[in-house]
Write a sequence for this structure.
């Protein structure tokens, strides 16, 4: 379901119904921003109301689409200083919200029941030592039963469903002993209440459910937050596209509205919004995001261009094609689904613990029951002791141990600009021992920088920059940046003409010194004879006929070498897999200190290399951004992407890194490892409690109240331990 | 003991009131923006209308 409902055709404009549009707003940080965004939208005619959600970084606006469209709302927010984008709330969003509400309701009911039953239980247990009559005690037990039965039936459902599913698949998960313990305790207590006995466990059963639901809620909230933030990022990146109508008029629309056949105009320097075939225009396209190759590809009418690639030369008109006709994307989608299936077999830490723990619990319970029965006690005494064992061992702390740690770890990483998307991502990140980097856009910044500026004549650079200032071509901008950095003042030259696919030209007047034409662009355009070993990509021909080659490189991120050396210090192996040319990859590997590198890798080659590493027992972390990395990101044991990555790669990655630096990779690995250690510590705490109380329970010494208190105490202990992770200083070590 | 006859129903009623209040606040979306709500308390202008609901 899409919440952004379109106005049905044929509705009169005056009576058109209002629609709700959800906008992701990137830089909304405080109450002031929230108010500003709401005020800006509310002031627009046609907007009924606007309400910001600071936790989700979204604004929801009711507006009349015939008066003001979603794109206008984005513009309004843009003028108010916010980077915004329309977000389609899809089925997954709605389901996640419903699941969130559902678990909170169950938590509320369990909390209410636990508090009230505990109140009655404490009265009974303190009254038992005093002067409480038998009839009053029975009354209290019945009241507890009255509260507990519906509460258990309602609040326990998530566990019962999960346990039934696991049993159907002939597996044991954590929910099997939980369900068994809760159901047995409730049924036994009901029976004992009818008989007027003292052994009533309603309090333990319901308190157990309450604590378990706290763990479940934390887990779900964390996942929901990560999913929402990831959706925001994707929405903010997919900008609007200029659509050309059959009558020649143009309009800016959201890229999601593009359908096959739509004519899209892409200006110089813009990214293509959709895959398409070129109808008009020619020039060069930077496909580094798709192929990893930094050298632009020359395209002409009839060529296919991919979404996410950058138009380097003049405006290009394309006709959008459906993505499934596209062989490259098809291939990548196929490789990805195969890789993801393989990863789906990963068993989470808590489930691995459950596989060991659940049988042990059941065996202990059974041994207790049989032990008491065989030593000549009645079956009731035996069953009571067995239930006490089940309740004590009920993996309350175990079920909280991992979610509590993960919430602390992900919120710490969130604060550092790392967004952990996959629910089991942290656990897989903790096991990594090899880091494989992509080059373009990952190890490097993904934008060209003019090299050997010093060797260049300043006069040449100044003239070239004066020409370049007229263009949005990445190479032209790099020339301007280099000139500015060299301390030259860049004055845009007059009468500069941009020739698509060739370069820039200025027709000089004879009156000027040097006269003649000046050109900046391809070798052919400038009339340069290109030696085979020349690395220059752009040439400058001055008015006097001098020809100078300008070389560009995609510079490494400032902290790339630091990150690689720290990884080596911590015992990680590193590798560089790139789709780019040998010379460029070799230079990047040398610059960053990576020993093993491979150039000219296709997506299939990358997966093959990852499989090779896997076969030697390595757990690989893939760090990549391009479309060509997406299958490798899905195939690796764990994966990271910068938020500048292609959409499909962001979707495949376990975690996203924001910002220009690579250092968050170190932080992510350090936190993941610390989280793993802490989860094990928590297991140790939980099992330590069991070691003390299980023998007591088996001996029949533990009363239901002690069982409930011990269980709560261990839950609080593991949560308190997990919270330490938020502030603990961490270093990545061996 | 007669005190119990009205004390217990009172206790239960208060508990149920709390539960009802929680469920009401949940259904009216008061847990949807925990960060924003704390800022809204400090804003001294007219309260904005509650979040838009679907027609």
């Amino acid at each position: 379901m899409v919440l952004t409902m379109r106005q049905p055709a044929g509705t009169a404009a005056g009576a058109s119904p209002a629609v709700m549009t959800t906008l992701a707003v990137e830089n909304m940080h405080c109450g002031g921003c929230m108010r500003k965004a709401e005020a800006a939208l509310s002031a627009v005619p046609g907007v009924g109301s606007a309400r910001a959600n600071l936790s989700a970084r979204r604004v929801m606006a009711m507006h009349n689409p015939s008066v003001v469209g979603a794109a206008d709302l984005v513009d309004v927010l843009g003028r108010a200083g916010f980077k915004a984008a329309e977000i389609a709330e899809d089925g997954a969003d709605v389901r996640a919200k419903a699941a969130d509400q559902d678990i909170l309701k169950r938590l509320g009911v369990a909390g209410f029941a636990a508090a009230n039953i505990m109140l009655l239980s404490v009265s009974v247990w303190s009254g038992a030592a005093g002067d409480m009559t038998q009839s009053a005690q029975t009354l209290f037990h019945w009241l507890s039963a009255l509260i507990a039965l519906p509460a258990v039936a309602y609040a326990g459902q998530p566990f019962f469903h999960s346990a039934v599913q696991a049993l159907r698949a002939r597996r044991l998960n954590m929910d099997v002993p939980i369900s068994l313990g809760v159901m047995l305790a409730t049924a036994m207590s009901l029976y004992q209440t009818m008989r007027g006995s003292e052994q009533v466990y309603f309090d333990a059963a319901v308190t157990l459910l309450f604590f378990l639901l706290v763990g479940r809620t934390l887990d779900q909230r964390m996942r929901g937050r990560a999913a929402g933030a990831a959706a925001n990022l994707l929405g903010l990146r997919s900008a609007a596209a200029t659509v050309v109508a059959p009558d020649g008029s143009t309009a800016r629309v959201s890229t999601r509205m593009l359908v096959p056949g739509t004519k899209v105009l892409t200006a110089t320097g813009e990214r293509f919004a959709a895959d398409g075939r070129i109808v008009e225009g020619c020039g060069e396209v930077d496909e580094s995001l798709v192929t990893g190759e930094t050298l632009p590809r020359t395209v002409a009418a009839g060529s296919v261009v991919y979404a996410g690639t950058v138009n380097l030369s003049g405006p290009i008109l394309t006709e959008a094609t459906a993505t499934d006709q596209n062989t490259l994307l098809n291939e990548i989608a196929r490789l990805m689904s195969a890789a993801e299936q393989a990863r789906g077999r990963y068993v989470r830490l808590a489930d691995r613990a459950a596989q060991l723990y659940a049988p042990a619990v059941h065996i202990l319970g059974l041994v207790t029951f049989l032990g008491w029965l065989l030593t000549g006690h009645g079956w009731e005494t035996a069953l009571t002791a067995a239930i006490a064992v089940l309740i004590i061992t009920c993996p309350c702390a175990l079920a909280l141990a991992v979610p509590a740690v993960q919430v602390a770890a992900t919120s710490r990483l969130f604060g550092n600009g790392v967004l952990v998307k996959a629910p089991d991502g942290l656990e897989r990140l903790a096991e990594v021992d090899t880091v494989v980097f992509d080059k373009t856009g990952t190890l490097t910044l993904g934008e060209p920088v003019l090299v050997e500026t010093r060797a260049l004549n300043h006069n040449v650079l100044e003239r070239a920059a004066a020409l370049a200032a007229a263009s949005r071509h990445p190479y032209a901008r790099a020339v301007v940046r280099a000139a500015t950095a060299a301390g030259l003042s860049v004055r845009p030259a007059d009468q500069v003409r941009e020739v698509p696919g060739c370069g820039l030209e200025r027709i000089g007047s004879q009156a000027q010194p040097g006269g003649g034409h000046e050109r900046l662009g391809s070798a052919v355009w400038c009339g340069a004879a290109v030696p085979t070993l020349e690395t220059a990509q752009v040439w400058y021909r001055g008015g006097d006929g001098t020809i100078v080659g300008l070389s560009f490189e995609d510079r490494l991120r400032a902290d790339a070498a630091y990150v690689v050396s720290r990884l080596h210090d911590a015992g990680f192996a590193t590798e560089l897999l790139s789709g780019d040319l040998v010379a460029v990859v070799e230079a990047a590997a040398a610059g960053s200190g990576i020993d093993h590198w491979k150039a000219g890798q296709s997506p299939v080659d990358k997966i093959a290399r990852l499989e090779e590493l896997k076969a030697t027992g390595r757990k690989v972390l893939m760090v990549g951004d391009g479309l060509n990395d997406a299958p490798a990101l899905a195939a690796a044991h764990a994966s990271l992407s910068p938020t500048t990555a292609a959409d499909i790669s962001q979707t495949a990655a376990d975690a996203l890194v924001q910002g220009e630096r690579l250092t968050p990779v170190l932080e992510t690995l350090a936190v993941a490892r610390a989280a793993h250690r802490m989860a094990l510590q928590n297991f140790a705490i939980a099992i330590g409690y069991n070691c003390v109380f299980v023998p007591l329970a088996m001996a029949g010494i533990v009363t239901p109240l002690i069982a409930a208190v011990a269980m709560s105490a261990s839950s609080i202990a593991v949560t308190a331990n997990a919270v330490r992770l938020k502030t603990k200083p961490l270093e990545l070590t061996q | 003991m007669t005190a119990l006859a009205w004390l217990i129903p009172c206790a239960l009623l208060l508990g149920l009131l709390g539960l009802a209040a929680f469920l009401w606040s949940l259904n009216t979306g008061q847990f949807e923006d925990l960060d924003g709500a704390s800022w809204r308390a400090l804003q001294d202008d007219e309260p904005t209308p509650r979040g838009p609901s679907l027609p």
Q: What stands out?
A: Residues 1-89 of chain A form a domain with the Alpha-Beta Plaits fold (CATH 3.30.70.100). The interface with chain B takes residues 3, 17-18, 20, 30-31, 34-35, 38, 42, 48-56, 60-62, 101, 104-105, 108-109, 112, 115-116, 119, 133, 136, 139, 143, 147 of chain A (CB under 8 Å). Residues 383 and 419 of chain A are 48 Å apart (CA to CA). Chain A has five domains: 1-89, 95-226+349-406+673-726, 240-334, 418-445+556-658, 452-550.
